[in-house]
């Protein structure tokens, strides 16, 4: 297996450890194969990253936002998606240009105590992500098969075996499964939008930001939850690693080409994620907000009311099928992100099944406790809370990413142009300000 060595002066050590070493450079990239043939070789990582932008946590915040405020928060979904496109571009560029994933870059740059602190924060973010996957999958199993939430939560532990099996079959198989599930979700929501008949003028108006998003505390809380659910901290670590599965030339020309094609893959995939997130919010607005059901704020209520309000039989079933597909997709990518974070920050390599089991248990325990004590409503509230936790963790991944990719001594000729650097810092500062406000508002209301 080739080891990537970089000699950029901004790094303290040579990059002599491949990220996800067992699949590093494992996907062939044709030389001189033409634009579309080359793009096809790079297609995959973007869809795996896009999964994090349509996981069950997004559903909770999008449903709550659409039901309570109509189409007004649609602009937040759009802005969050544009943030995501920029930040994922920086993540893939860091991985391709330096041969380091974001966790490895942090370990090289920061002191040991700071690296451990960032690792713990990243683990909290992954636990919050996994919590959303556990609850979302359990709710989907309940809606489709009538399984109690507690049993559904326990069943989600079995995906450890599924993931181990898939990992042994090659990285591209995982990518294909993820892509298939994404297009299943797209198909389900395409149908939902057709039968809900949203007001297209209202949808268009919703894409324009409204001042009351900031001035209305309830709307702001959900808006920040949407931001946290859309721009996922673990996705920045994930993307900076999995782009290195492509066997591109480890020279300036090869890296330049890889960054171009990986960015196309990422951008197109994230627009698919935008469609799904927007579709969930639009569906909630068209079905619930304008029918006097503004109180609908969780997935279970949404599923229960879809069929009678829309007057069709398949809406609820397809809604639950899409939710289950979303949860399973997020499980695959969340596990990989956990492995990348643990190996990158503290150089601790454990067997995948042990890593997966630990992560899943951390999510299962609080989900079980809440499900037993508070039932469906409690798990739905926990789902929204998990997205706010993610939003609070986001700054600790974004600031190092923007800092590294804006540093010429670390990135060489692949450093961010001035306009990208300025835009990236504006996004980072905006994320910090919004999250600080959320924290202050939460603490002051206690």
From TrEMBL:
GO terms for molecular function: cadmium ion transmembrane transporter activity; manganese ion transmembrane transporter activity; metal ion binding; symporter activity. It holds the Pfam family Nramp. The chain crosses the membrane at residues 73-96, 145-166, 178-198, 218-238, 259-285, 305-325, 357-375, 387-406, 418-440. It is a multi-pass membrane protein. GO terms for cellular component: plasma membrane. GO terms for biological process: iron ion transmembrane transport. Its main location: membrane. Keywords: Cell membrane, Ion transport, Membrane, Symport, Transmembrane, Transmembrane helix, Transport. InterPro entries: NRAMP_fam (IPR001046). It is found in: Cell membrane; Membrane. Belongs to the NRAMP family. PANTHER family: NATURAL RESISTANCE-ASSOCIATED MACROPHAGE PROTEIN 2, SOLUTE CARRIER PROTEIN FAMILY 11 MEMBER. NCBIfam families: nramp, Nramp_1, PRK00701.1. H(+)-stimulated, divalent metal cation uptake system. This is Divalent metal cation transporter MntH.
């Amino acid at each position: 297996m080739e080891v990537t060595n970089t000699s950029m002066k901004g790094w303290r050590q040579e990059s002599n450890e491949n990220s996800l070493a067992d699949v590093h450079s494992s996907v062939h990239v044709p030389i001189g194969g033409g634009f579309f043939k080359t793009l096809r070789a790079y297609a995959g990582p973007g869809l795996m990253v896009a999964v994090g932008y349509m996981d069950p946590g997004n559903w909770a915040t999008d449903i709550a936002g659409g039901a309570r405020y109509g189409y007004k928060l649609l602009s937040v979904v759009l802005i969050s998606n544009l943030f995501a496109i920029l930040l994922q571009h920086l993540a893939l560029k860091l991985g391709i240009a330096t041969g380091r994933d974001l966790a490895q870059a942090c370990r090289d740059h920061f002191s040991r105590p700071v690296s451990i602190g960032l690792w713990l924060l990243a683990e909290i973010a992954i636990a919050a992500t996994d919590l959303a996957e556990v609850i979302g999958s359990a709710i989907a199993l309940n809606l489709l098969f009538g399984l109690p939430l507690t049993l559904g939560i326990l069943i989600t532990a079995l995906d450890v075996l599924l993931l181990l099996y898939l990992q042994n079959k090659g990285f591209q198989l995982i990518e294909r499964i993820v892509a298939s599930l994404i297009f299943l979700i797209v198909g389900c929501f395409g149908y939902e939008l057709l039968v809900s008949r949203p007001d297209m003028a209202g949808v268009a108006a919703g894409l324009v930001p409204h001042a009351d998003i900031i001035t209305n505390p309830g709307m702001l809380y959900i808006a920040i939850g949407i931001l946290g659910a859309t721009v996922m901290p673990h996705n920045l670590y994930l993307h900076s690693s999995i782009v290195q599965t492509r066997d591109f030339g480890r020279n300036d020309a090869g890296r330049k080409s890889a960054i171009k094609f990986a960015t196309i893959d990422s951008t197109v995939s994230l627009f698919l994620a935008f469609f799904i997130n927007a579709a969930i919010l639009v569906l909630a607005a068209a079905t619930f907000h304008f029918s006097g059901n503004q109180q609908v704020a969780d997935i279970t209520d949404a599923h229960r009311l879809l069929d009678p309000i829309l007057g069709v039989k398949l809406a609820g079933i397809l809604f639950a099928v899409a939710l289950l597909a979303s949860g399973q997709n997020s499980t695959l990518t969340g596990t990989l992100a956990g492995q990348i974070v643990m190996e990158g920050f503290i150089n601790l390599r454990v067997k995948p099944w042990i890593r997966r089991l630990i992560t899943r248990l951390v999510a299962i325990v609080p989900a079980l406790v809440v499900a037993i004590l508070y039932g469906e409503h409690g798990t739905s509230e926990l789902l929204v809370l998990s997205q706010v936790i993610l939003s609070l963790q986001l700054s600790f991944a974004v600031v190092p990413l923007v800092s590294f990719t804006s540093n010429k001594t670390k990135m060489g000729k692949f450093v961010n142009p001035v306009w990208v650097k300025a835009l990236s810092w504006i996004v980072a500062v905006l994320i910090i300000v919004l999250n600080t406000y959320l924290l202050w508002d939460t603490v002051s209301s206690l």
